[in-house]
Design a protein that fits this description.
Distance between the termini: 73 Å
Oligomer: single chain
Order of helices and strands: HHHH
Mean pLDDT: 76
Number of strands: 0
Strand content: under 5%
Length: 176
């Protein structure tokens, strides 16, 4: 049985073809990293606007992209093994793939690094926003439930009683 190869696909039986496939695999990783960064940026916007559906959709989308990313990395590792005969770490590619004929691979690797750096920046920003949002929610709940500094008491002279001896004073507005 003979495999028919399209003319646009590089030939995996040649070193040049394997190198071209490796560049394509690295570019696929760049697209996935950029897609993940866009998802996290949308998550940030959803947090800002208070849209829980968009947050939920973002979690689902991010999970799907990360699974695809795992597949892309496995593909890259197979291609690296095919091209070099051993499975190298991503950072080791530069030391092995030297010379002008490997320049496209090195450039593709740099594109992956740049996309990963942008994603790290977006994730860091989202983490800071989430941390503040969680802290704000905690303070709000402590105030509502009487566990914070602004404890609500049931003493007749509101605010003058000792919070340690005051009866539980949770105030809930059931009309809202």
């Amino acid at each position: 049985m003979q495999t028919i190869q399209s003319s646009s696909e590089p030939d995996l039986t040649t070193e040049e073809g394997r190198r071209a496939h490796l560049v394509a695999a690295l570019d696929e990783e760049v697209e996935l990293l950029e897609g993940l960064r866009r998802i996290f940026a949308a998550q940030r916007d959803a947090l800002r606007s208070g849209d829980p559906m968009a947050l939920d959709d973002g979690v689902f989308s991010a999970t799907r992209v990360m699974r695809t990313m795992e597949e892309a990395r496995r593909r890259r590792r197979r291609l690296t093994m095919s091209l070099l005969g051993s499975d190298l770490e991503f950072d080791e590619l530069d030391t092995v793939l030297t010379g002008s004929r490997n320049r496209p691979v090195r450039l593709a690797r740099e594109r992956v690094r740049a996309a990963a750096a942008q994603l790290r920046s977006e994730v860091g920003m989202l983490q800071r926003i989430l941390k503040v949002a969680l802290q704000d929610n905690r303070v709000h709940l402590e105030t509502l439930l009487g566990d914070g500094v602004h404890r609500v008491t049931s003493d007749a002279a509101y605010g003058t009683g000792d919070p340690r001896t005051a009866s539980s004073g949770v105030v809930v507005d059931r009309t809202a």
